[in-house]
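Researcher: Hi, I'm a grad student and pretty new to this. My advisor asked me to get structures for two proteins we've been looking at. I'm not sure of the right format, so I'll just paste the first sequence and hope you can take it from there.
Model: That works fine. Here's the first sequence with its structure tokens right after it:
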Amino acid sequence: MKEIYLDNAATTKPYDKVVNRVTEVLKNYYGNPSSLHRKGIEAEKIIKEARREIAKKLKVKPNEIYFTSGGTEGNNMLIKGGVKALKRYGNRIITSSIEHPSVLEVFNRLEEEGFDVIRLSVDKEG
């Protein structure tokens, strides 16, 4: 039976090459990258290498690449960081009413902190 998977917005089947590399790293470079022992230093090198490769592909600086544990953490970091960095321009922020719950929750918290949150409605076409 042929599989047809239509939920790539939520998660996507990784390439075998990616699965193999992740497996190799998990098996061999499991040290805490913040530690000064050999395993930690090896793990830190893997992370730095990945950061350099991604930065090169995206044509950005390696220090502009951040790794998070998932989408919710990434959404929180990006939205809170951006909003607070630009607060001097005002405290009105805009989102849509159909955002992912992890996004909507960040805006709810920012509203509790005093930001003026505008939630745009959508129609059948978005």
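Researcher: Oh nice, that was easy. Here's the second one.
Model: And its structure:
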Amino acid sequence: MKDLLPILKSLKSNYAAALLFILQVAITFTILVNAIFLAFEKREVIARASGLDEQNVFYVATNLPVEDAEKEAKLEQDLLKLNAINGVESASVSTGIPLTGWGRLVEVAINPDTKYDTFSGYYGGDARLIDSFGVSLIAGRNFLKEEELTTRVDGYKVASEAIVTKALAESLFDQNWTDIVGKTLYINNKPQRVVGVVQTLQSAWPSWVVVEHGVISAVKETDGIVNFVIRAKPGRQASVTNQTLSYLMETYGRKIDQVETFIDVKARAYSAENAASKTLFGVIFGLLLVTTLGIYGQSRYGIVKRFKLIGLRRAMGASKGEIVRYFMLENMILTCFGIMFGVIAAIVLSVTFSNVFELGIVPMSYMVYGSLCTLFLGQAAVLYPAFRAAQLPPAVATRIV
């Protein structure tokens, strides 16, 4: 540490360059840490489990091209035929599809005199809907076939039993979420007894704050467009899709509004987040590159200006290693000052983003790893100029003005 005092004196005599270096590191650190946090936060959103058997589930949105009085019978016939297709694990009808942006929400309350305790996505279908989605039942039981009902619209108004997601149960009963089985919830003020809990089932809106709140009822709806949810056996999805469309189009007046695998649904739902995360990673890479070049250029310029001083030190017996160590220590000191100011700025920026845009606050672990990354970046950028300066013979260095 004998070089510490000379370094501080040198920085004092050239404080403008030192302040510029510190400012560059501070700005880089502030942007870097927040950009990395936002990028990984986007990736975490994309990676969230939907709860479905994503690789094997697809849906077909279509109509029931018969008179209103015949729609219930036609729906039952379609479900029987679809379940009989070779390669189908389970086929159901549903009022909505997760993450498509098209669905329903309901108000959920524990007590009848409370307007609501929370909100939830809603799915109505037949007793096989859980199997067709491929979600995991973790408490209670599935619907019984005799519990199925059929109505034209608003199935939650006539449902008497419900299955809820674990996230919804935890929001209402906290750690005792399993106690919800057998309890009566008030779904839009209509009492429904909870018979089971599923692990995860996301709602129709991926950016919704309660996207993992879900209520399922065994009530089929026949009005307008119906969604047939079909879960194929592994490796059979393409074949099952073709057979499904072939059967459906046998009915005169049938219109296919949408056919989509859940893989495509999820990719479309999170396309904005995916694009944003890629953009942020591009910004991070560009920022690291520009910063590295900036530190390299500034370090090289500062070293070139001191070639004569380097020559004098070499003539007085300083080794090449000592010259390299001197400039790397100088860089470390400046970088540490920059990191210190950068941490403060990063915290302020993170809190501002949290208050204004309702984003999460950057954890301290990001500050720690960001500090180590920035230190390594600075040391890597100064290493080559310092090594080149140490290679100059004393006689040549002292002649350079």
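Researcher: Is there anything I should tell my advisor about the second?
Model: You could mention this: The CA atoms of residues 51 and 380 lie 45 Å apart.
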